[in-house]
Amino acid sequence: MNNLFNSTFETSLRILIIMSEYQDTHISADTIAAIDFISIYGAEFKISDTNLHGDNLFMFSEFTSRRTLVQQGVKKLVLQNLISVLPSKEGFTYRINSNGIKYINSFESHYAHSYKEMCHRARQYILNRAEKDVFKMINEHSIRSLKRRGI
Questions:
Q1: Which of residues 127 and 7 earns the better pLDDT score?
Q2: pLDDT-derived band at 62, boundaries 50, 70, 90
Q3: Surface-to-core class of residue 117, CB atoms within 10 Å of its CB (0-12 exposed, 13-18 middle, 19+ buried)
Q4: pLDDT digit string (tens) for 75-89?
Q5: Does pTM top 0.85 for this prediction?
Q6: What are the b/e assignments for 15-48, b being 16+ CB within 10 Å?
Q7: Beta bridge partners of 93
Q8: Which of 29, 38, 113, 137 is most buried, by the most CB atoms less than 10 A from its CB?
Q9: How far apart are the first and last CA of the chain?
Q10: Which domain of life is it from (predicted)?
């Protein structure tokens, strides 16, 4: 049996939810990964009282593998014509297209609604921050989290 959790499929669904929050702009795969991570572990970033995926001692070690899953998910969504790609001087950026919007509008679950709310909060949290500053902030949170736990 294939595990849907932490799979490219699951990540692709979350990417579409993120992209629906960013319909007005193109964003990079790394920014998508950062928003995904902040949305899932919102309590660590003080944008939520709880983490959507629960508490995890090693949550920050997941970030690297999540970036890889996001890159795979973005490729899959481009091939499925659910998001569009735009080359820029910094690399490729992505935007949800009308097919992706139609698809995402069919999502009806408590988790999808909760995750969308967290994506909105994460967007506000990183608003006006450069991508490198967002990654630096995630790294700083990681170090503080490990120190708090005595690791």
A1: 127
A2: confident
A3: middle
A4: 999 999 999 999 988
A5: yes
A6: bbbbbbbbeeebbbbbbbbbbbbbbbbbebbebb
A7: 86
A8: 38
A9: 35
A10: Bacteria
